[in-house]
Amino acid sequence: MPRLSLIIPIMAVLAIPLRLIAQTTGPSIIAQKSLGGSGKDIANDVVALPDGGFLLVGSSYSNDGDVSGHHGSVASSDAWVCRLNADLSIRWQRSLGGTSNDGFMSVSLLPDGNFVCFGNTDSGDGDAAGSHGGGDLWLVRLDRSGNIIGNKFYGGTGVETLYDGVPTSDGGFALIGTTSSMDGDVTGLHGGNGNDIWVVKCDAAGSISWQKTYGNDGGLDYGSTIVEAADRNLVASVHAQASTPAADFPESTPGYETFIIKLSVLDGTLMAKSRLASRFEYGSSLARGGKNFFVSSNGSIAYPACANEGTTTAMIGLDMVPLASPLTMPFLCMNPYTVYSLALAHTHGTLALNDTTFLGAGIYSGDPSPPVAPPVAISGNSDALFVSASLSGQASQVQWKTYGGSGVDAFNSL
Length: 414
What we know:
This protein is mainly beta. 0% of the residues lie in helices and 47% in strands.
């Protein structure tokens, strides 16, 4: 059965001031570990620890092998947390949740040495007793030994889904996802039968400081990634679907479009936004490097240059072409670059090293478009993908390498 894997590569990034140079080279594996049981086990995020170890979070359908303490039947998932020593041996593991489906999407190390996990719960019992039902955002604080020291649920009687969460410099937390509720903790849902982007800002105790919904009436809108900007406000990657009447995203065209939005940390006021145009749908990863941001979207990377405010350009193959970017608010300037349509997938698939350099992790399932020469061979149905890139103006260098076996392999986090 599928097991989650931790792979530690040797990472190197080279910057060459040419246009786009792509090489099928990358870091070598220096250590790897497969973890789990006989069921399906998924790692969604990992954090490196000061002692050289790692903390993994995700979900597990197992109650054997490396996994114990599963709640209820293994037909439903528990959130799974696993702490590893520097040699990748397991120090401790915890199955958290109730008798329905539960899982963690994100984890961070806190300044006091404890951990905060962000996820979802469909349960109303076990560790999730007290949730609103139907599906809640879930914030759990763990001590260094994996014991629960804080447990909070956010939502209403509809369905809420979390995609990302981060600690903030004021000691609190910010969570982002989607909601269909109009009660409980949720106010301001836009009309119709759709979902709204939902952002929740909490204090250090997990109590809600403010919550805001964003979207179009009746649209199926959601937020995928949230980070703290240098000025301590919040920047998020979100996805809006065109609907009538439009509300927060009148620029949307039919289908999903990716927007980068900036929110006031004080009250969630929408301060700025940038539309990455219709070809850049389903963005999934956002990372801050210095004062700038990188966003992955359908395998493309957006790099903020702000050389021509009010317009957006894209690198298609080797040519820079303008994209229409009608905006009704201050422009959060982005310059998207196509990186050979490589799928840098999932919430934590991008790591910014500085203002111009990023690393990406995801999945590679075939020859990209435009094709590369020589073609990149894959070991099975798909391989895990690692990318390093340095971008500056219209110059970029990209390197990548694939890893895997005869089945389906992918990286969810970096």
